[in-house]
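sry for the spam today, last one i promise. struct tokens for design, 263 residues
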């Protein structure tokens, strides 16, 4: 919260009532994240399949020590620089991302100028509306919805439907918790893709332009901080250097080594 801000005017907290009982638990942070997803299913934001996907990612997070490592920090700097330098950046939001990081995704949208666009594998108009309302609750505005007027032709799932004013014309897309098929399809159209994925061996991690191997809850918060520091200085040499010096293969190798060795 900014200094001097009126708490009553701020977006609501991500925390649910059930989470307040977990303050003394040694696995508190992990359980808080799980609770957000469970609440997301109850409210129609997250699909049940998303719980399985999260459990897989949580195992990788445990292996990297449940902390943001240097390889992730490097990728975060490159990701933020890429978003700030983009002409038409978009932040793609699915059910898990909405449940876990809506407040920070809205803030990232505000500081980078990237519009929010909802895109779902398990699509329904009810889920799209629920996610839209959830983002609005945290201050989101002008949120784009998928449309059959614009299609990624190489995909067969509902994720092929995109907004003609958003992903369809974007040059840079931030797609946290992405699936491999769409990541590859977006890259094939010439777009730069930034993702957050705790598994450096996944198709998404390997096919993306920039991969942040970290928990979305930690990563997006750090992206907001970095973007806030650099907003308005898009020609800053350090910002440009962050992008140019990013080595995708090197970052994935470092992340895989951390998973295998704990170092």
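last one done:
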């Amino acid at each position: 919260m900014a200094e001097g801000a009126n708490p009553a005017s701020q977006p609501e907290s991500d925390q649910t009532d059930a989470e307040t009982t977990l303050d003394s638990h040694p696995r508190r942070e992990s359980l808080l994240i799980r609770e957000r997803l469970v609440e997301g299913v109850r409210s129609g934001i997250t699909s049940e399949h998303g719980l399985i996907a999260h459990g897989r990612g949580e195992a990788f997070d445990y292996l990297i020590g449940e902390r943001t490592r240097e390889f992730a920090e490097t990728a975060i700097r490159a990701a933020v620089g890429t978003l700030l330098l983009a002409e038409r950046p978009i932040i793609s939001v699915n059910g898990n991302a909405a449940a876990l990081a809506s407040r920070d995704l809205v803030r990232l949208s505000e500081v980078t100028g990237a519009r929010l666009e909802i895109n779902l594998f398990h699509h329904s108009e009810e889920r799209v509306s629920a996610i839209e309302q959830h983002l609005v609750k945290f201050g989101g505005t002008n949120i784009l919805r998928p449309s059959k007027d614009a299609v990624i032709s190489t995909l067969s799932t509902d994720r092929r439907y995109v907004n003609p004013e958003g992903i369809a014309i974007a040059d840079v897309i931030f797609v946290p918790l992405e699936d491999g098929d769409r990541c590859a399809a977006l890259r094939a159209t010439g777009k730069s893709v930034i993702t957050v994925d705790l598994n450096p061996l996944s198709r998404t991690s390997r096919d993306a332009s920039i991969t942040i191997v970290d928990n979305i809850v930690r990563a997006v918060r750090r992206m907001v901080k970095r973007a806030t520091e650099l907003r308005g200085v898009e020609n800053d040499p350090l910002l440009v250097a962050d992008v140019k010096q990013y080595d995708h293969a090197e970052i994935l190798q470092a992340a895989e080594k951390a998973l295998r060795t704990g170092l």
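The first strand starts at residue 89 and ends at 93. ok im logging off now
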